[in-house]
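Render Primosomal protein N in 3D.
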Amino acid sequence: MVLCRSCGHRLTAPDTDSWLVEHRYTGRLVCHLTGFSMPKPKACPSCGAEDSLVPVGPGVERVEEEVRQLFPQARTAVFSSDTVPDGKSARALIQSMADGEIDILVATQAAAKGHNFPRLTLVGVVDADLGLRGGDLRAAERTYQLLAQATGRAGRADKPGRALLQTWTPEHPVLQALAAGDRDAFVEAEMAEREAASLPPHGRLAALILSSENAMAVEKVARDLAEAIPNAERLEVYGPADAPLALVRGRRRKRLLVRADRDVNLQAFLRVWLARVKVPASVRLTVDVDPYSFL
């Protein structure tokens, strides 16, 4: 993200609760949620201080700078959406790696998916536990999959590979399983935790997302839904509350979550419930059963 050193203001996309990220190669600030982009301002839009906006966090471009300072003799390249915008450029960069023309590749997570680097023997992941933060049910599952893919890039040919993960939570089951190379241990721990909480696949979930440009309208529908919940056994409704992304493209968002035992007819419950509430045209209601995303 980008913030002001003078007043602490964090730059966000217009009408969206999403931080802007600096892309130094293009000289622009980008919202990775909506795709909005803009030139980096010369002054803070909040306090007016000039030359006070700085990027915070270990972005790929900052890591590249430090790599070049630490290893000035190494041939360094970057794999990101700015430097590798299409399949042709990706193939060219990978071929350069295979030909021994690149010593260090600084990459985003895109490089972990579906690409083969025969000469790669060492992988380092910065902020490896970043995806574990927040309230996403599948955060551990997604993080394990991504890190397993990333670390699996090393040592695919005749040379052995090694992976280093930077983490604040080395005791987390995801990091423990990766360090031990024990996928079954992660699956067992994750399934036990979900079973204890009656979460998928041992239970059912549904997310109701309300959004509107009219904040009062979305608040009213959210309250009406909360007051109209049918009586049901082995089922709980949580909310309404602000969605994790409470403002997207000028639309206010509220969320209700339903958790039900596996044998409960969740769709029938939802039909009865939604029939009790009138949703005006100004409010959009989205129902996602067993959602993959919790934003």
